[in-house]
Design goal:
This protein is an all-alpha fold. The protein has one domain. About 65% of the residues lie in helices and about 0% in strands. It contains five helices and no strands.
């Protein structure tokens, strides 16, 4: 029963997290779309997007980010942690 609940939870969570990459990319290009666009232009303009480099740059500079971007990064971090937990539960 417990294993079934975990699998159901993981499946539901996995589906809800499918939007994460597209959601996280909204502010990546600095096109004014997304709460972190200005922060990216200011702090991460030389970072090549992809493979988590932009996210890593924002996390490295978390104290320098605008309040809105900090909140956004916290939400992204929480989603990634949930996705990793779901993947671990699926393996076990």
């Amino acid at each position: 029963m417990k294993r079934t609940l975990i699998l159901v939870f993981a499946a539901g969570l996995g589906g809800s997290l499918m939007a994460l990459p597209a959601d996280a990319a909204k502010g990546r290009r600095g096109e004014g779309k997304g709460v972190c666009a200005e922060d990216i232009q200011k702090l991460c303009k030389d970072v090549k997007p992809g493979e988590g480099r932009m996210r890593d740059c924002l996390q490295k500079n978390i104290k320098k980010l605008s309040e809105e971007c900090q909140t956004r990064q916290e939400k992204v971090k929480e989603r990634l942690e949930l996705r990793n937990k779901a993947a671990d539960a699926k393996k076990g």
